[in-house]
Amino acid sequence: MKISQMGLGTTRLKNINEQFPAQDILIQSGQLLQYGAGIYAYNNIPLAVKQNIESLIREELNSRECIEISLPTLQPTSLWKESGRLERYTSDGTMMTIANGEFCLAPTAEEAVVAFARNKIKSYKDLPTIFYQIGEKYRNEIRNRGYLMRGKSFPMMDAYSFASNEEDLVKAYMIMKEAYLSIFRKLGLEVVPVAADNGAIGGKKSEEFMLLSENGEDTILYDERTGQAFNKEILDKDDYGEYLHDEYGIMNLSSLQPRKAIELGHIFQLGTKYSETMKNATFMNEDSKEQPYYMGCYGIGISRTLATIYERSILKDKSGKPQGIALPTYIAPYALQIISKGDSPIKVAEAEALYRVLSEHNVKIILDDRNEVSIGAKIKDAKVLGTPYLGLLGDRTKKGEIEVENTRTGEKVLISQCELAKQLIKFNQERIGNPDISLEDTIKFQPNQEKEIVR
Ligand code: ATP
Ligand code: MG
To answer: Residue 322 has what pLDDT?
Structure first.
């Protein structure tokens, strides 16, 4: 993509929000647009990051035989009367209703998926099965905090499992738990599953996928040594000491320290809560008897995950002040940004040629084609967009050469444009969802000790 066509200009960052600097940079640079508290538009790059996250999720779920569907986000409130949840979701203002309360904008989709399953699941032969969708959810959150972290309208992956008995429900739950761990590993996020309260969703067992972070709104009790984690609600139990000892082998309560965390996902064993309250939520069992099915439900906050990845990608200057973003290569939509000296026709032509070759090989990169902008300003802008590698064509590069910089580490390497193209084509086929590989594995970068060249 060419910068001149992205609808973004040069950004002079000022007074960056201390707690959520990366998202503030996205707002200041017009990559994220706020329409009101908790309502956002995404410009191309964060949108492409979101699509990459969604693709990784799809890949993991499809490989586990989960079936992708799409449920309506506009739902008749009569469905919610049927499950008995209308009152709970309207009384605290979470649910947004329209047309005199006849419809609502989906805050979640347990009711809608039961309505979907009614005509699909008839016999034990149709079970077990897991449906999932990736779609917008609407919750009129009172406190919108941390930009995308808590929106009023936000994308979620929500999945629903159906089984003929409790044992198969537990199996589906374990499949989803494993899928979640794999998804978050591919996203470079070290989440810990934490036993949690089921809240408004209902059911028996549930676990939240928490990422330790000072930015988090939740507090968990975490054992540094073993990695064991618990929801702090556990302290409300009268006999929590005994419970933690008996159930989890915790000998020393002082090893559990309160830590802030972000809830990125949640999985629930619902049992028959919905199938017993809603009509025709049954299947014919092996003895030809009608029986309510056992459900599980599973959610991942896509925009909250995106926000978390961005906030972990903040670039700081020597004094620790945020100065930009460096997205990890395993999720960045564009691996490289080519920056040339605008007043040198030769460098501009070389940049164009390299851009063309890489585009022809489906390597998505950004070309800064603004001739009037200085190299220094272009580098600053690249760090606002978060591109992991810069390809510099300036005074230091001879004909056919390019200087590649890892924006996160500052490490650089001078190589031939041909070699870079070759390595990048290879790297690009493997990099998404692969936190363990980097371009440095094939190109030898020099440590960040030499003096700065262009700035
Ligand atoms: P929270 O406790 O943060 O309000 P929740 O427990 O109500 O979240 P769930 O119903 O479990 O949320 O939804 C599944 C996932 O959707 C959550 O784990 C979270 O990642 C995400 N999520 C929930 N609410 C929001 C929101 N307002 N904005 C962005 N993501 C959200
Ligand atoms: Mg939750």
So the answer is: 96
* Confidence (pLDDT) at 198: 62
* Distance of CA 298 from the midpoint of ligand 2 (Å): 9
Domain residue limits, the chain: 21-311, 325-442
Nearest CA to ligand 1 atom 2: 263
Listed in sequence order, the residues at least 6 apart from 358 whose beta carbon sits closer than 8 Å to its beta carbon are 336, 365, 421, 424, 425
Q: How far apart are CA 400 and CA 380, in angstroms?
A: 24
Using the mean position of ligand 2's atoms as its centre, give its distance from the Cα of residue 198 in Å.
8
Identify the residue whose tokens are 């199938």: 275
- CA-closest residue to ligand 1 atom 18: 265
Q: How far is the CA of 136 from the centre of ligand 2 (A)?
A: 16
CB under 8 Å to 61, separation ≥6 — which residues? 68, 130, 132, 157, 159, 179
HSE of 234, CA atoms in CB hemisphere, 13 A: 24
The conformation of residue 450, written as its DSSP 8-state character, comes to S
pLDDT band at 451 (very low <50, low <70, confident <90, very high): very low
Q: Return the CATH number of the domain spanning residue range 21-311.
A: 3.30.930.10
What spacing in Å lies between the alpha carbon of 268 and ligand 1's midpoint?
Answer: 13
Mutate which of 110, 145, 156, 201 for ligand 1 pocket (most atoms within 8 A of beta carbon): 156
Ligand closest in space to the Cα of 196: 2
Is CATH 3.40.50.1000 correct for 325-442?
Answer: no
**Ligand 1 atom closest to Cα of residue 156:** 16
Give the number of the atom of ligand 1 that is nearest the alpha carbon of residue 265: 18
Tens-digit pLDDT profile for residues 257-312: 999 999 999 999 999 999 999 999 999 999 999 999 999 999 999 999 999 999 99
What pLDDT was estimated at residue 237? Answer: 80
Please list every protein residue whose CB sits less than 6 Å from any atom of ligand 1.
108, 139, 141, 150-151, 154, 156, 263-266, 299, 301, 303-304
b/e for 81-100, b at 16 or more Cβ within 10 A?
Answer: ebbebbeebbeeebbbbeee
Task: Tell if the pTM clears 0.85, that is, is over it.
Answer: yes
What is the average pLDDT across 17-34?
A: 97
Q: 346 C-alpha to center of ligand 2: Å?
A: 56
Of 322 and 451, the one with more pLDDT: 322
pLDDT of residue 261: 96
